[in-house]
Amino acid sequence: MTSLLHLDSSANRSDESVSRQLTALFARTWRAANGPAGYRYRDLAADPVPPVATAYCALGRRAERNGVVPPDAVDALIGSVAEEREWSLTLPLVTELLAADTVLIGAPMYNYAVSASLKAWIDRVSFPGALVDPDTGDGLLRGTKVVVISARGGAYGPGTPREAWDFQTPYLRAYLGEKGVAPADLHFIAAEMTMAEVVPDLARFRPMAASSLAAARAEVIAVASGRSPAAGRSADTEGRIDAPAG
Questions:
Q1: pTM of the shown model
Q2: Which residues pair with 189 in a beta bridge?
Q3: Which of 63, 72, 86, 209 could pair with 56 in a Cys bridge, judged by C-beta atoms 3.0 to 4.6 Å apart?
Q4: Which residues are registered as beta bridge partners of 147?
């Protein structure tokens, strides 16, 4: 069964959140093409993943001393109630991630990077060895398609003055690539200048914001439907059109 894991990480849980609007559009389009059975949703803002604790670190180091320990063998290494709790918070997230054929990540840009809620999820699923093939050492996300949908209050795409301020895209590209996601399976879609409708000083950028959002919507539909992005755009770019977004 084809499956989709949908993650939202915007702190703004209202209908104003652009990243949530776009991930919802992707999910609707995907379900229309593939059916609802394989769909799973996790709201990282409404149900935050707890930050990793000392016991998580202790258990992780014990696992690393034993080489690459697969998730189903970690139980044997647990040495305390605190470690048991940390693993009970971790294993379901790892299992959910590894079961997905496609992972959809709503990743608004906060202070030039990812949100704290998304980072907490990343830290927890990255338990030592959990996403590594014990036989080959390869990342277990090879063959997984990942779509990152971002909303940015300003402009950080290629050729913009603040292109180098985007620490979100390079970070996620490096992280996901190290976990095995192939470049061809990694798609970045961004809507930029999303604060133009809110901030008076950005009002002159409203046409650019509207254009960026329309292009992002079209790209979302194309990727969710399994089609190639429209000519002149790539799902592996960061947008075209500066502030936080949702």
A1: 0.91
A2: 149
A3: 86
A4: 104, 187
